[in-house]
Write a structure and sequence with these properties.
Layout: H1 3-6, E1 9-15, H2 22-32, E2 37-42, H3 49-59, E3 64-68, H4 75-87, E4 93-96, H5 108-114, E5 120-124, E6 132-133, H6 137-154, E7 166-169, H7 170-175, H8 187-198, E8 203-207, E9 210-211, H9 222-243, E10 261-262
Parallel strand pairs: 1-2, 1-4, 2-3, 5-8, 6-9
Antiparallel strand pairs: 4-7, 5-7, 8-10
C-alpha cells in the first residue's frame, strides 16, 4: 500500500444552485479517486441542490457527507464551515474544489501524490502558459490582472494567486487560524494561501486546466471584484500590523517534485 492509499482524505465542495452539476461531479470524483471522501457544503440552495446532495449521501454511505447551512454567506464562510467539520474527524488531507465542474477531478490523484512532500498544493491555471477553456478575453484579462495585483501587493510568488483548487495537509489547515479568516468571498482563496506562505510552509504548484461551467451561472460580478480589490489591501495591511509586534516568519522550504513548481520564502521579485 502506498502513501496515498494510507492517507485519510476528503474533498470539500461548497455549493449554491449546482443541481445540474452535482451528480456528475460526485461520480467523477468517485471514479478518479475511489477512496476519497466527499463533503458537500450547501448554502440552502433554492434550486434543490441540498436535496440532491442528501440523495447522493444515501447512495454512498460513509463516503459522501452533507453539511447544510442556513443561508448564503459567501464562499469563504462555506469553506471555513466545511474545514471545521472535517477537522473534527481524523482526516489527514483535505482537498477543496468548486462544485461547477470547472476543476477537473482527473487531477485529484496528482494532487494527492504531490501533497506527500508538501504542506499545501495549489492547482495552477498559468503554470504552463494559459490553461483555461471557454473564457472570453475580458474574463481572462481580469484573471491575469488580478493575479498580478495580488503578487504586487502581497509578494506571493505563485503563478495563480486566485485559484481555488487546493490540497491541504491537516496540520496546515490547523496552523493558519481559521477562526481569524476575515474573507467571505473570493479573497478567501488569496488569504488562505497568503497565511500559509507567511508561515514558511512547503507549498507547490501543479498544472491544471480550468473549464468554464457548462450549466448554471457564474458567481463572479463587479461587487465581488470590488470586494476582492479592497480585501487584498486589507490582508496586506493586517499582516504588516502584526509583523511590527512579532518575529519575522520562517523561510519556506524549496521542494523538487515532478511537474510542480516550488516556492521559497517571500521574495520581492514578481513571477511572470
Amino acid at each position: 500500500m502506498n502513501g496515498v492509499e494510507k492517507m485519510k482524505a476528503i474533498v470539500v465542495v461548497p455549493t449554491y444552485n449546482e443541481r445540474q452539476n452535482l451528480e456528475h461531479l460526485v461520480a467523477r470524483i468517485r471514479q478518479a479517486a475511489p477512496g476519497l471522501h466527499i463533503l458537500i457544503v450547501d448554502d440552502n440552495s433554492p434550486d434543490g441542490t441540498g436535496w440532491i446532495a442528501d440523495h447522493l449521501s444515501r447512495q454512498n454511505p460513509g463516503a459522501v457527507f452533507v453539511l447544510h447551512r442556513q443561508k448564503k454567506e459567501g464562499l469563504g464562510r462555506a469553506y471555513v464551515a466545511g474545514f471545521d467539520w472535517v477537522l473534527q474527524d481524523s482526516y489527514d488531507v483535505v482537498v477543496q474544489m468548486d462544485g461547477d465542474l470547472s476543476h477537473d477531478p482527473a487531477y485529484l490523484p496528482m494532487m494527492l501524490a504531490a501533497i506527500q512532500d508538501c504542506d499545501l498544493v495549489l492547482g495552477s491555471r498559468y503554470l504552463r502558459g494559459i490553461a483555461v477553456v471557454n473564457w472570453d478575453f475580458k474574463r481572462l484579462l481580469l484573471s491575469k490582472l488580478a493575479t498580478k495585483y495580488v503578487q504586487l501587493v502581497t509578494r506571493l510568488p505563485f503563478t495563480d494567486a486566485t485559484g481555488g483548487f487546493k490540497c491541504w495537509r491537516r496540520r496546515t489547515l490547523e496552523s493558519v487560524g481559521l477562526e481569524e479568516i476575515f474573507s467571505d468571498g473570493y479573497v478567501f482563496q488569496i488569504e488562505m494561501s497568503y497565511k500559509a506562505h507567511r508561515q514558511g510552509l512547503r507549498i507547490a504548484e501543479v498544472p491544471i486546466v480550468f473549464y468554464e461551467r457548462d450549466f448554471g451561472r457564474s458567481k463572479m460580478n463587479w461587487r465581488i471584484i470590488w470586494e476582492a480589490f479592497w480585501g487584498v489591501l486589507r490582508l496586506k495591511l493586517a499582516h504588516s500590523w502584526r509583523s511590527t509586534r512579532s518575529a519575522p516568519p520562517l523561510p519556506a522550504s524549496l521542494l523538487r517534485l515532478p511537474a510542480a513548481r516550488r516556492h521559497a520564502s517571500p521574495s520581492p521579485g514578481l513571477p511572470l
